[in-house]
Design a protein that fits this description.
alpha/beta, three-stranded parallel beta sheet, 13 helices
């Protein structure tokens, strides 16, 4: 398609949960709406539902579509909604992407099929097919740990030649590759940081956004950090703020990420229900460790 609906994706884009009822049998719609209001009130710059943090692999087809609809409705134009799209077939991804566009998503975050890793030519054909079926921007979800597709910075930049592939969410611990994308490949594609513990590095290196699950737990801290580092360029202050955000991010990377996020939200008093099986609840010892990290960050009272 030659024309694309333009939306500026910039700032802290919170990778958000899918709230479930207490037995995880259904979407908890009121809690989902309340979560959106809380994040928007905290100043979050965008929402990314139905990604890894949103447990998209556990959603039924009907639930998947409904969650996207709910986030778009709840955001009500206050912030962009970038719908995570993941399927094991090209047509499945197209169907979900077209639904997201139809219900008002501002962009999609597209993960390639994640069972049998695609070679580079096949990946480009997949991305071209999905991007060509919609008129909203596409964020390529680079998550080699889940897809098995490991691309160089040059290959990632080459994806920007595909009409509609405007951005990359770089969920990789390859800091050298991210540095190359941000320093030498910005004319080809915009790279967003997507690896929690590289957030300081990514933003300081020029990433215009960070897709960040941690921001769903501590949105005020994340937004304040963005303002300090990206907008004001106050490195000294940002380093102090980053110490707590790093500790939170490092913890989440040390446990099952979804279980950690959902435990964190319960600890701070904004529960969103359990993760769906096979993900297990965070063990009590890890919950206590996370609570202490959140206390030290000032997110919950010292006596909590």
């Amino acid at each position: 398609m030659s024309t694309r609906t333009k939306v500026e994706l910039r700032g802290i884009l919170a990778a958000v949960t899918t709230p479930f009822t207490s037995d995880a049998s259904a979407i908890d719609e009121p809690t989902l709406r309340a979560q959106v209001d809380r994040l928007v009130a905290a100043g979050i710059h965008g929402l990314v539902p139905t990604g890894t943090t949103g447990e998209f692999t556990t959603l039924s087809p009907e639930e998947y579509r409904r969650v996207i609809e709910l986030y778009v409705e709840s955001a009500a134009g206050r912030v962009p909604v970038i719908a995570g799209i993941g399927a094991l077939s090209t047509q499945g991804a197209i169907d979900l992407a077209q639904h997201a566009e139809k219900v008002g998503a501002d962009a999609i975050m597209l993960v390639p099929p994640f069972y049998d890793p695609l070679d580079f030519a096949t990946l480009k054909a997949f991305l071209s097919a999905v991007a060509g079926a919609i008129s909203i921007p596409v964020v390529y979800y680079n998550v080699p740990g889940a897809t098995g597709i490991r691309l160089t910075a040059a290959e990632l930049a080459e994806l920007g030649e595909i009409e509609g592939i405007n951005y990359i969410k770089n969920t990789s611990d390859d800091a050298i590759g991210l540095a190359e994308l941000l320093a030498a490949r910005t004319d080809s594609i915009k790279a967003f940081n997507g690896w929690d513990t590289l957030t300081f590095f990514g933003i300081a290196s020029g990433a215009e956004a960070s897709v960040w699950g941690t921001a769903g737990v501590v949105p005020e801290l994340a937004v304040e950090f963005w303002e300090t580092l990206a907008e004001k360029g106050d490195l000294a202050r940002a380093r102090e703020q980053w110490k707590h955000l790093w500790a939170i991010s490092d913890f989440l990377e040390s446990v099952n990420y979804v279980a950690g996020i959902k435990a964190g939200l319960e600890i701070i008093g904004h529960p969103v229900g359990p993760a769906r099986f096979p993900i297990q609840p965070l063990p009590q010892a890890e919950r206590e460790r996370f609570a202490q990290i959140l206390r030290e960050a000032g997110v919950i009272p010292a006596a909590a």
